[in-house]
Amino acid sequence: MEFPIGVSDFENLIEGDYYFVDKSLLIKEIIEDGSQVLLITRPRRFGKTLNLSMLYYFLSNNHSVGKNLFKGLEISKEEEFCKEHQQKYPVIFISFKDIKRLDYSSAYSSIVLLIKELYAEHRYLLEGDLLAQDEKDTFMALLNRRADQEDVEAAIKNLARYMTRKFKKFPIFLIDEYDTPIQQAYSKEEYYGKMIGLMRGILGQALKDNKPKDRFLEKAIITGITRVSQESLFSGLNNLEVYSVLEEKYGQYFGFVEEEVLKLIDDSRQVLELASIKEWYNGYRVGKYALYNPWSIIKCLKNKGTLEPYWVNTSSNTLIAELLEGAQLVVKQQFEELLQGNVVEQPVSKNLVFPEIRVKDAALWSLLLYAGYLKVLSSELRGNRLIARLAIPNREVRFVYDDIIEQWFDRAISLHSYDRFVKSLADGDVDQFKNYLSEYIMQTGSNFEFNSKTSEQIFHVFILGLVVGLRDYYIIRSNQESGLGRFDVVFIPKDKQRKGILLEFKTSVTVNLLLEKAGEALEQIKDKRYMEIFKQHGVDSVLALGLAFCGKQVELVYEYIGISGSEN
């Protein structure tokens, strides 16, 4: 059984006898959709390119293999539909997914090459007198990569006009990963504006509403990760319908539903635990559809069920790391909620303006949602804002956040490793824990500004970020009710042979009162009976620590407390 790792050409997949999860009914839904221009946004590696390639081989009249490729697939059972639409259209298919360059000059050259390859595919249009001489000259200039930018921007539109003349039928456009060059340009910033201008010229001319006498478009299907709304990228497109993860339609066609995953496991004759696969790779939601990450599922089965973070390693997470590191404290607090498995409510936007990501929280949450780093449980319009209930999809994505936070602190340590720090806490080596903690506070100034007026809340977020390395061994909870109050942070061991850990924080305006404040924190743990939460989890013994902070100074006191009546 061959798994199609990295195979995005539908013909190669079918003729190479790779395993195919049948999504062919997407074709019928797309064609019967009343919208002239459809933009479908999904995270990377969710099958966008393969689905457009499938559409190409079904619809295009410019090849001879289309009918055989669909034999036995669900779409082949729709006989009347196939008679009417299969291989009946001129099709323009272009993918921008590989336009990832360090500067505008290189990116522009790559797009010119892409246009050249597109025109080479349709070189037959040069035959006879279909084109006027000036049109042939422009055609040849594009083939030779010597055309000026105005002709490059008009290339798709003009090609559609030529094909309409040839076939007496309006072509269908398939435009894949349109926003890849824009995202890459934003990550480099210095050429973002130029790339927006170029892509606005290409897409705006190709997709604009046509007057009846100048019509050249039957239908366009565009894919990407986000809907970019900057300087009228889709200027004047009254014919555009957007289907993102916030809309249910087409939800089952990008990603695997559970029935498909079960069939994959069964067909591969592997004995795998579905619960573990679900924990790692499930969790994405589009309307009523709960989806598994298709790339990770295929990689997992290819590797005989080995559970690893496959999808998150298919691309650099540098931009996400930079955005979270530079985010305001309130955003970091929300992420601590997410990392504990909680749901947060945040504003999101259906359109994304990249320059706003660093200054507007809604833009940041939107990017994380559309890029696959968060899932949406529900959304509703409140006033003029769309509010979404967001959560981390699965363990694989949580791995990204844990890694990002660990890197914040790793960079601050010169004498001791991060692993030794978390081990000192887990082993109850309180003196070493205090030494490491003091050193981290002294050296971590880029993410947290500590002074005598720093609030307890900031230290709270700092500590929660610091202990992400213990999440595999403990259930970490913060600011939740137990006994007669709300504790700061608890560590409930997954292995009940380990001791539980409870941290309570206080701040002091002077260093002289630090030890007294730490003692108050420890007494609060006992007075408020915070230990009740450990009883519920069958934990027999707890290391209770009271910590007090004043600027970059820390003091602590501790006590081991036995838990009577725990539920073993």
Blueprint of the fold:
Elements: H1 10-15, H2 25-32, E1 37-41, H3 48-59, H4 66-69, H5 79-85, E2 91-95, H6 104-121, H7 133-143, H8 149-153, H9 155-167, E3 172-176, H10 180-188, H11 192-207, E4 219-224, E5 240-243, H12 258-267, H13 274-281, E6 284-286, E7 289-291, H14 294-302, H15 318-325, H16 329-339, E8 344-348, H17 361-370, E9 375-382, E10 385-391, H18 395-410, H19 418-426, H20 430-443, H21 456-466, E11 474-478, E12 481-482, E13 485-486, E14 489-493, E15 500-507, H22 514-527, H23 532-535, E16 541-550, E17 553-562
Parallel strand pairs: 1-4, 1-5, 2-3, 3-4, 15-16
Antiparallel strand pairs: 6-7, 8-10, 9-10, 11-14, 12-13, 14-15, 16-17
The fraction of residues in strands falls at 15-25%
Task: Compute the CA-based radius of gyration.
Answer: 28 Å
Major sheet: 5 strands, parallel
Strand order of the largest sheet: 2-3-4-1-5
Mean pLDDT across all amino acids: 89
Count of individual beta strands: 17
Shape: elongated
Q: Provide the helix percentage.
A: 40-55%
**Number of contiguous helices:** 23
Distance between the termini: 46 Å
**Structural classification:** alpha/beta
Task: Please mark out the parts with pLDDT under 50 across 5 or more consecutive residues, or reply none.
Answer: none
